[in-house]
Amino acid sequence: MKERTRQPVGQGQLAGPAGWLRRNALPLTALALSALCCLLFMHRYVNQWLDADDASEMVLARLLAQEGGIISPNWHYSTELRVLGHQVVLSLLFRLFSSWHTVRILGLAILMCLLTASFLYFAHQAGLGRWGIWAAAALWLPLSRTYVQYVFRNFGYIPYLVYMFLTLGMVFQLDRSAPGLRRRLLYGVLAALSFAVGLGGVRELMELYLPLVGALLLPFLAGHRRDLERDGSLPGLARALLGQPALRGSLLALAGAAAGAVCNQKLLHRYLSFGSFGDVWYHTIDWQTIHWFFEDLPKLFGFVVEEPVFSLATLGNLSSVALCGLSFWAAVHILRRPRQFCRPAVWIAAFFFVSLGMHLFLFAATDMYYTARYNMLELMLYLPILGFCGQKLQKYAPQLAKTAGIAVAVMLIMVSVVQYRTHQDWHENADILDITCWLQQNEYEYGYATFWNSNILTELSNGQIGMLAIGDSGRPQPESIRALLPYNWLIRRHAEDYHHPDKVFVLLTRDEYALVADAPLFSEDRMLYLNGKYVVFGYSDTESLYSLVQ
User: Which of 354, 358, 360 lies closest to 285, judged by CA?
Assistant: First the structure.
C-alpha cells in the first residue's frame, strides 16, 4: 500500500483556528487593546458628559425591562422606533443588574461586540482578510466627538452600523454563492432583517437601502455603457441586471424595508407615540446648509475645535484632515479603476458617494433638519475603503503597503489620543451631579425639570429619582414652565396624570429661573438648594405644587 504523506500547510504555519489566530495575532491584539481602553475610559468618565438623549435611552430600557417587551406603548418615542435595536440588550441587562452604570458599560461592551462581529462578517464576505481585523480594531477607537456621543454614549447608531454591515455582507455573500438552498436562505434572512429595520420608519430606506441599490446599479451601468450605446438593448440590459444575485438581494432588501415602513405608518402609529419624517417638504436650495455639510466633514474624522494651536490637538487635527482627504481619494481611486479591485470594493466606494450625495440633496433641497451625525454612517466605510487600497498595494509593494498601514494607524491613534484627552477634560455635569447627591441625601424621589435635565437626574440617581419633563418643545418657554406642561418627547406617556403623595421638587437652571422668577410657584421662600447652574424648589406633595400653578 502506498504510504500517504502529510503536506505542510506553510512554512511553520499551523492549520485550522490555531493557525488563523497565530497569523492574525497582531491585529487581534490591537482589537483587544482598543476595546479595553474604550471600556475603561467610558467606565471612568462617561458620567461627565451624559446628556438628555443618552439618559433617555436608559430610562426607556428600564421601562421595557419592567414591561417585559421590546417596544412600549407607554413611551413617547422620537422619530425612530428602533424596533430591532440596542434596547433589546439594555432591557435584558436591567433584569439582571440594579446598577444603571453597570448596565451602561456592559451594554456598551455587548453592543460593540455585536458591531465588531457584524463588521468582521462583512469584511470576510468582502475579502478584506487581515486588513478587516485591523479595521475592526479601529471601531473601538474614539474616532470623533460625534462617534463617541452617538456610538459609545447614546448607543443609538450601533444598530444602524450593524444593519449596514450585515446587509452589505449578505449582498456580497449572495454575489459569491451558487444557486441553491444557501442562496435562498440568504434571501430570506435579508428580507426578514430589512423588514424588521423598516418597522422603525423610513430613515433606513434613505440611509441604507436606496443608496445600496444605487451603489450596485451605477457601476453596472458604467461597465455596460458601450453595450448600451451600441445596440440600446434596454430589455437585455434589464435582464442582465436582474440576473445579478447581489442586485436582486438589494432590491429585495429595499422592498422589505419599504414594507416595514408601511407597517410603521399604517399599523404601529395606531398604538405607539412617535414622530416621523413624513412632514419633510421641498424648498429652495439652501447654500448655507451645503457650506455646513462640507465644513463638518473633517469633524467626523476627529477634527476638534476650541483647542490651542500649540498643543497635541494640532497633531490630531492634521491627522483627521489627512484621513478625510485620503479616504475620499481612495474611494475615487477605486471607482476610477474598477477592474483592479474586487466588486465589493467598487460597490462600497459607490455606496460611500451615493449616500453622501443623497444626504446633501435632502439637507439642501428640503426642510429636513441638518445635523452632521447623519453623515457618520456612510463615512465609517472609509475604514474598509482604505483597507481595500492597502490590500491592493500589498500585492505589488508589500513594504510600501506596510508603511502606509502604519501611517494610517498612527493617524488613527493620534486622533484617538486627542479625543480621549479632550473628553477627559470635558466635565459638563459637575453641577447636576452635585444636585443629584443633595436630592438623594434629602430623600427626594420625584421631581420636575425641563427635558435637558430630567432623565439625567434619573440615571445619575441610579433610578431612585423619577422625573417628569416639563416645558413646551423642551425649551425654557416661560408659559409652559409656569404651567408645568409636560414635554411629550422621550418620557412616559400619561406621566402628567401621576401624583406623588410625598414631597416633590422642581429643578430649573438659573437661566430658566430668571424667566419665571415672578411666578408664585417659584417664590424664594420655596427655594431649597442653589449651586452654580441650578436651583431647586420644594413642595410637600404634588397637590400643593399644582395648587400654585396659575
Answer: 360
